Amino acid sequence: MAQLNVFLPDDLQRWADARAVEGGFSSTSDYICDLVRRDREDAEKLVALRAAIDEGLASGVSDRTIEDIIADRRKRDGLA
To answer: From what superkingdom does this record's organism come (predicted)?
Structure first.
């Protein structure tokens, strides 16, 4: 495992220590690791969302009405 030293202003250190305790982490280091892990996951989700948006924009405009779409979905779900 790699080691990283981070210097925080006193107020941020106290805040991080308190959040670690409140969150049930065994240490402030574990809390910081969790923050970085969640940030990475959020970044990956954002990349996927942007790709889905680009795909949707590239697919063009449909001539189907909302009623057509709902009817097709109901047929697919066995509701119609």
So the answer is: Bacteria
Please give the Cα distance from 71 to 60 (Å, whole number).
21
Query: pLDDT per residue over 50-78, tens digit each?
Result: 999 999 999 999 999 999 999 999 999 98
CB 28 within 8 A of CB 16: yes
Q: At 72, which helix (H) or strand (E)?
A: helix 66-76
**Burial of 25 by CB count in 10 Å (0-12 exposed, 13-18 middle, 19+ buried)?**
middle
The DSSP symbol for 57 reads: H
Q: What does the DSSP assignment read for 5-38?
A: -----HHHHHHHHHHHHHTT-SSHHHHHHHHHHH
Six-digit token pair at 73? 């979905």
- Domain residue ranges of the chain, discontinuous segments joined by +: 10-76
